[in-house]
Structures are given as structure tokens and as C-alpha cells.
Design a protein that fits this description.
- The complex is a heterodimer.
- Chain A is mainly alpha-helical.
- Chain A has 14 helices and no strands.
- Chain A has helices at about 1-35, 40-45, 55-65, 70-100, 105-115, 125-135, 140-145, 150-160, 165-175, 180-190, 190-205, 210-215, 225-235, 240-275.
- The longest helix of chain A has about 35 residues, at about 1-35.
- Chain B has two domains: about 1-45; about 85-315, Orthogonal Bundle (MetI-like fold).
- Chain B has a two-stranded antiparallel ribbon.
- Chain B is built from 13 helices and two strands.
- The radius of gyration of chain B is 29 Å and the shape is globular.
- By secondary structure, chain B is an all-alpha fold.
- The chains are: A mainly alpha, B mainly alpha.
- The interface between A and B is large, with 97 and 103 residues.
- Chain B: It is a multi-pass membrane protein.
């Protein structure tokens, strides 16, 4: 018995050691980035990575000398707008596919589904021209409009609506609720979890947009953070590593917070797609 | 007494009949509006998808069959000539090759490390929740942040890697001018960024494994490696497949990290498919060639997505 305890004891130690090593590998880039964001650039360049001159000066410089607050605001605005539109339009379409009888319903569904096979990256040339002719270059709307709906969102919410007990719909019909009323009072509340999942997912994917804002924004008034950092990097500030690292830190903190609170929904949403 | 009962029955019957009628009436009134609601609910999404996905796809195919002049206008119809010249151009073939190297590298490492993280975190020891949060944390890292973190780590003159190498008197590696090292650096930063997602998905698959299975195999005296390969892996294979195919698709579409870290260089070593499209269309103004490249990319992604659908179809009833 004692032997067994000893054995599991040392096994546990190894297990913790592995957990700690893996954590350090994952956290390494964060730690290095955050640490150097606290050091003067002169020290970083000369390889003095110790505690001597630690300060928040780089953060102050990033906040006052660069448009990073503006970039953050732009990203936040674009992501929230995309999120609201996606939840709204995807849920409406999903509702139609589940609760409304219409001609060629399956055809339309497969048509929507087939868009998942067509990568947006391969369609940027005509889309650029479309946005340009709509006069939406360098605007919030131009960055949001192509992503207001998604086949993924429609598919996910359709799966969730399909799991609703049919009696609910029947009861609603008896009460004489219109589709719009049942959408608001029945379908949406019932699929709360999937709605949150889509909200979190669409927010993060809008936040991470890179190619499209790079092509369609020309001024700091509309530039989101991803492209904004590129702008900072390409200016003379490129060699100001301390400030660049501080900017990266300022940008990563909000998403880490969103992730921390949204984790549960991501997981359940991913499971919907993966396990079933 | 009997009469009363009959009367009651008749009343019941009447009520039932009436309610049936009203249900029917309601159903009819709902049915009448269905067309209107279908248009109202599905219309916006359908319109958006047509405008920003179907139309541009057709337009891209169309553009790929012409030559473009300096102003981006179509001049001569050349059929498939753009494709022929692409598939015989050494630059494009090299780009295709480096994309495959990158995609395979990223996918294999993401799956391997994702499995390692998920299996390590799935053991219920004290503090495992804390480690799970750490392991999924890179999901909150965006492209630009990842690029900046890793650019500093790999920076040839002041980067942490070379500083450590210098400290231990190891050879200094030039991550930005050596083609192979540049590719490795882009792969590493992509994998790091992917790991949070891969971990989260694989971990939930591990979590849903039946505990009894572990107990049974433990009694039979099966070693942990054997058990992992022959019990765990087959059980989580649907999830494993899902993560693999998503990672494959996403890495074929990689653009941001490459733009920020290497801009396709050095010497086109990291000039992958989407970056080529961007370069040809928006930097060189060669729309026709970029369109042909877009169509080739679409074919690759479509095949992968189709495989994913086929596989999902077995699991999900549409």
C-alpha cells in the first residue's frame, strides 16, 4: 500500500512538472512581451533585460503618442456592430429554415451552406470594387457589411432551433402568435446558449479581421487595432520596441477578458460543431 | 343521470370540435403569411450572401479568363491561359510548395501539441482549472499581437532567442534573412496562436469520454501509451478530424501573420497563396492573375470543406 502511494505521489509530481513546463511554453511569449513592455527601449536594444529601469513609461507613450485608443475604439465598434448584425440576421434566417414552410426550402439551405466552401480571401477583388462603388471605402459600414451574416451562424442556430419541442410551436400557433412574435418570445429565449456562442464567436472573428480592413481603410479614423499595429510598426516607431510591446499588451488585455468570460460559450459552441 | 352524462359528452365534443376549427383557422392564417415571412426572415441573409459571396465568386472566375491592363480593365479574353501560365510559373509553384510546407507544419504541430495539452489537462488534479485557463489563453491573442510578440523573440539583433543563444555561446541564427528559419518562425507563431482553440476543442472531447472505460482498461493492465493510441484516439477521432480540417483550412487562408512578420520574404520563402493574391491584385494591379490564383485557392478550400461536410453528414442529420 505504501509503495502504491509513493508511486502515485511521484507520478503526480511528474504530472505537475509537465503542466508547469507546458504553461511556461504557452505563457512565454506573453511574459516576454509584457516584461519588455516595462523596459526602456535603449535597455532592450542593448540586451539589458533586468529589473533596473522598470516603469510604465512605454504605456504612457503608447497612449499619448499613438492613436491606439482610437484604434481600440474602432475595433470595438466594428466588432459589436458585426456581432449584433450576425446574431440578428443569422437567427432570422435559421428561424425561416426551421419554422416556416416555403418552396425550395432545402435548396436555399444548401445554397447558404455552400458559401462555407468559398473563402472570403479569394473574393477580395470584386468585393473591394463593390464597396468602392457603394462609396463605403474607409468607413465602418464598409468593414461590417460583408460580415453581417454567415453560413456558420445560420447553420448553428438552425441546429439549435431544431431541438425545440414541436409542441411549443403548436401552442404558439393555437395562441395565434405570428412568426415574428414566436421568434422573439419562443425561439430566441430557447436558444440563448447558441445565441451567446454566436455572439462571442462573431465578436472575436470581427476583432481578428486583418486582410479586409487592410484593404479598405486609409485613415486612423477608421483603422481597427490589427491594422493599426501594422501602421505603428511601419512608421519610425518600429525601432521603439518598448512602446510597440506596450501597444500589443494594451490590445491583448480586452480580448483576454472577453475570452475568460466567454470561455464556457465557446466550448459549448465548438462542441455543437465538433462532437455531434 | 345518463342524460346528463350524454349532455356533458356532447358539450365536450362541441368544445373539442370548436377548438379544432380554431386551430385549423389559425394554421391557415399562418400559412397564408408564410411566404411573406420567409422573404422577410431569409431575405436579408440571402441578399448579403449573394452580393458578397456568390457574385464575387462568379466575377473572380470571369476576371480570371481575361487579361487586365494597367488600369485594371479587362482587355483580351484568353480562356484558361492565366491558369496555364500560373501552373507553369516557377514562382507560383514555389508559392504553392511553401504553402503546403506551412500548412502541413502548422497542422501537424497544432494537433500534436493540442493533444498533449488536452490530455495533460484532462487529469483531475488540484489546480487543473487554472492550467486549463492558461492553455486556452492564446485564443484571445489576435494576429497583430502574436506577430509583435514573436517578432521580438525572433529579432536577429535584439531578440530574446539570440540573446539567450549568445549567453550560452550557441550560434546566432538569422531568423529574418534565412528562408528556412523565416518559415519556421511563421509556423511557430501560427501554431502558438492556434493552440488555444485546438486545446479547447480537444479538451472537451476528452472530458466527454466515459470514465468507466479508463477503469476497465486500467484493470486489464494496459499501459498508458497503448491506451492512449488504441482507446482514447479512436474515441475522440470525430473531434480530432474536426480540428485537423479546420486547422488545414485556416492555414491555407493565412495572411495576417505573414504580412506582419515576413511580408512574403526573404526571397519569397513565405510568399503563400493569399499573400500572392494580395500582392498581385493590390500591389501590382494584375487582377487577372490574382483572380486565377483566387480560383485555385477556392478549389483547394472547397475540396477540404466538402470532405468536412461529408464527414459531418454521418454525424449530424441535416
Amino acid at each position: 500500500m505504501e509503495n502504491l502511494n509513493q508511486w502515485t505521489g511521484s507520478k503526480k509530481t511528474w504530472h505537475y512538472l509537465l503542466l508547469i513546463i507546458l504553461s511556461l511554453l504557452i505563457l512565454g511569449p506573453f511574459i516576454i512581451g509584457l516584461w519588455t513592455s516595462l523596459l526602456p527601449t535603449a535597455d532592450i536594444s542593448s540586451g539589458k533585460l533586468f529589473i533596473d529601469n522598470i516603469s510604465l513609461d512605454n504605456y504612457w507613450a503608447a497612449l499619448t503618442q499613438t492613436p491606439i485608443i482610437r484604434y481600440l475604439f474602432n475595433s470595438l465598434f466594428i466588432s459589436i456592430l458585426t456581432m449584433i448584425c450576425q446574431v440578428f440576421f443569422c437567427s432570422l434566417a435559421a428561424y425561416a429554415f426551421v419554422f416556416i414552410d416555403f418552396k425550395y426550402r432545402n435548396f436555399y439551405f444548401y445554397l447558404v451552406l455552400s458559401t462555407m466552401m468559398l473563402p472570403f480571401e479569394a473574393e477580395v477583388i470584386p468585393n473591394f470594387q463593390t464597396i468602392k462603388s457603394l462609396g463605403l471605402l474607409n468607413s465602418y459600414l464598409g468593414m461590417v457589411i460583408p460580415f453581417m451574416t454567415s453560413a456558420f451562424g445560420i447553420f448553428m442556430l438552425r441546429q439549435s432551433f431544431m431541438q425545440m419541442p414541436y409542441e411549443l410551436k403548436e401552442a404558439a400557433d393555437v395562441e395565434g402568435l405570428s412568426h415574428w412574435q414566436f421568434y422573439l418570445k419562443g425561439a430566441l429565449p430557447y436558444s440563448k446558449l447558441s445565441i451567446y456562442t454566436l455572439a462571442a464567436y462573431s465578436f472575436l472573428s470581427a476583432w481578428n479581421q486583418y486582410l479586409w480592413p487592410l484593404l479598405t481603410t486609409f485613415s486612423d479614423d477608421y483603422r481597427p487595432v490589427q491594422v493599426g499595429l501594422r501602421e505603428l510598426q511601419s512608421q519610425e516607431t518600429f525601432n521603439n520596441w518598448g512602446m510597440i510591446q506596450a501597444s500589443a499588451a494594451i490590445i491583448v488585455i480586452p480580448t483576454l477578458i472577453v475570452l475568460y468570460f466567454g470561455q464556457h460559450y465557446f466550448k459549448s459552441g465548438l462542441n455543437e460543431g465538433a462532437v455531434k | 343521470m345518463e342524460e346528463e352524462n350524454n349532455l356533458l359528452d356532447a358539450k365536450k365534443q362541441n368544445i373539442l370540435e370548436n377548438s379544432k376549427k380554431s386551430i385549423l383557422a389559425n394554421k391557415i392564417s399562418v400559412k397564408k403569411n408564410d411566404k411573406f415571412y420567409a422573404l422577410l426572415f431569409l431575405g436579408p441573409s440571402l441578399l448579403l450572401l449573394i452580393l458578397f459571396i456568390f457574385y464575387p465568386m462568379l466575377k473572380t472566375i470571369y476576371l480570371s479568363l481575361f487579361l487586365t491592363n494597367g488600369n485594371g480593365q479587362n482587355t483580351v479574353f484568353v480562356g484558361l491561359e492565366n491558369y496555364v501560365s500560373l501552373l507553369t510559373s516557377s514562382t507560383y509553384l514555389a508559392s504553392l510548395g511553401s504553402t503546403f510546407v506551412y500548412v502541413i507544419g502548422v497542422s501537424v504541430l497544432t494537433i500534436f501539441l493540442g493533444l498533449l495539452l488536452a490530455s495533460t489537462a484532462s487529469k483531475n488534479v488540484r489546480g487543473s482549472v487554472f492550467f486549463r485557463t492558461i492553455f486556452s489563453s492564446t485564443m484571445g491573442v489576435s494576429i497583430s499581437v502574436s506577430a509583435i510578440f514573436w517578432l521580438f523573440i525572433f529579432n536577429p539583433s535584439i531578440g530574446i532567442l539570440n540573446q539567450v543563444a549568445a549567453f550560452f555561446h550557441l550560434p546566432i541564427l538569422n531568423w529574418s534573412t534565412d528562408p528556412n528559419l523565416a518559415m519556421i518562425s511563421v509556423i511557430i507563431s501560427t501554431v502558438w496562436m492556434n493552440l488555444g482553440f485546438a486545446f479547447l476543442v480537444l479538451f472537451s472531447a476528452f472530458e466527454s469520454l466515459p470514465l468507466s472505460l479508463y477503469e476497465e482498461t486500467a484493470i486489464e493492465g494496459v499501459g498508458p501509451v497503448y491506451r492512449f493510441m488504441h482507446v482514447t484516439i479512436p474515441l475522440i477521432s470525430p473531434t480530432l478530424f474536426f480540428v485537423s480540417i479546420i486547422t488545414l483550412i485556416e492555414s491555407f487562408k493565412s495572411f495576417g501573420l505573414i504580412d506582419l512578420m515576413t511580408a512574403g520574404g526573404p526571397n519569397n520563402a513565405t510568399n503563400m497563396l493569399v499573400y500572392q493574391i494580395y500582392q498581385n491584385a493590390f500591389l501590382n494591379g494584375n487582377y487577372s492573375q490574382a483572380s486565377a490564383e483566387s480560383v485555385i485557392l477556392t478549389i483547394i478550400i472547397a475540396i477540404l470543406t466538402f470532405i468536412q461536410f461529408k464527414y459531418l453528414e454521418k454525424k449530424v442529420s441535416y
